């Protein structure tokens, strides 16, 4: 089981990389150091990357009816 801190750190790395903040030499070195610091970090990072990738397939929340999770105007009976 991965720690909450490992997951939080992994998620922050994924977001930083997606936003372009992780491209500097210093950021890449810090990321490599973080990955190597604990075997659980690699697993947490792989899980975070997987979640990030999967979330790209989910429509934005504002496009869904919050009560039913269906597009506006559709009902579960449709």
Overall mean pLDDT stands at 78
Order of helices and strands: HHH
- Major beta sheet, specifics? none
Q: Can you count the helices? A: 3
Uncertain runs with pLDDT below 50, 5 residues or more?
A: 62-71
Gyration radius, in Å: 17 Å
Shape: flat
How many strands appear in the DSSP assignment? 0
- Please report the distance between the alpha carbons of the first and last residues: 41 Å
Structure summarized in a few sentences:
By secondary structure, this protein is mostly helical.
Account of the protein in words:
It is a single chain. Helix 1 packs across helix 3 and helix 2 packs across helix 3. About 13% of the residues have low confidence. This protein has one domain. The chain has 78 residues and is mostly helical. The chain is flat and about 50 Å long. Pfam families: DUF4880. This is DUF4880 domain-containing protein.
For this entry, give a set of tags.
FecR_N, 78 residues, mainly alpha, 0% strand, DUF4880 domain-containing protein
